[in-house]
Amino acid sequence: MVPRPDRRRWRSAARQGRQDSTMNDAPNKTQIVRAGMERLARDVGEGLAGLGFARSRSKFWTRRHPHHLDFIHLFRSGSSYGAPYNASVSVRVHLGIAVLDDERETTWLNGPDSSDMALFHADRFHLRFNAATGSTYERCLEDVLRFATTRGEPWFSAWREPSALLDGERSPLDGEARAALARSLRGEASSERTALTLKRFGVAVAGARQKPPRAAEPAL
User: Are 159 and 171 in contact (CB under 8 A)?
Assistant: First the structure.
């Protein structure tokens, strides 16, 4: 008598095989996505340079004013959930303003971002690409820069003057940040607090010893 196959054991083995295959493939996908993001960040940085922004951290670009920083942050959707499942990359672009004399962690995002459909639905920003094949990469890059120029720059311009940041009804600054800005305008800013804010954003401080730049990921 021919024994009947144990279907439960077969299904368990098949499922385990798929899991092992996914685990073995995860490092490769992680490297591909990381390289794709580095490529995007590098190309975005070249485009933002014309607006006066400099890349100061891996996915942060900053522009300095006497009392505050404008900053743009590029975030990969799903990055907080661990290794990527595939080579598809979706990004969000965040805007923010940080007061130099604010002693708190000032990299929190207090401006609009590209995923706000109530504000930007009509713009139809296409902010995704395939890091393995390069499919729609150029369109994604173009739309990141389009968001920065057509939406980011008007927003930053609206809050460029300290008086607007202090007294504007919809100012992106909270109470503590406004107090720090008022203190700075009175000439009471602390060089230590300012240096700490610049350090958090990775902005070079005059006279400070800088770490050597991290090697760039290989381009796709």
Answer: yes
124 contacts 140 by C-beta, under 8 angstroms: no
pLDDT in tens, 36-55: 999 999 999 999 999 999 99
For 73, list phi and psi in degrees, rounded to 5.
Answer: -125, 135
Structure-token pair, residue 80? 């907080």
| DSSP helix/strand/coil, 6 | coil
| Residue from 191, 19, 183, 196 nearest 104 by CA | 196
- Distance, in Å, from the CA atom of 171 to the CA atom of 179, rounded to the nearest integer, reads 13
Cβ burial of 28 (10 Å; 0-12, 13-18, 19+) is exposed
3-state percent helix, strand, coil for the chain, nearest multiple of 5: 45, 15, 40
d(CA 50, CA 94): 18
pTM (two decimals)? 0.80
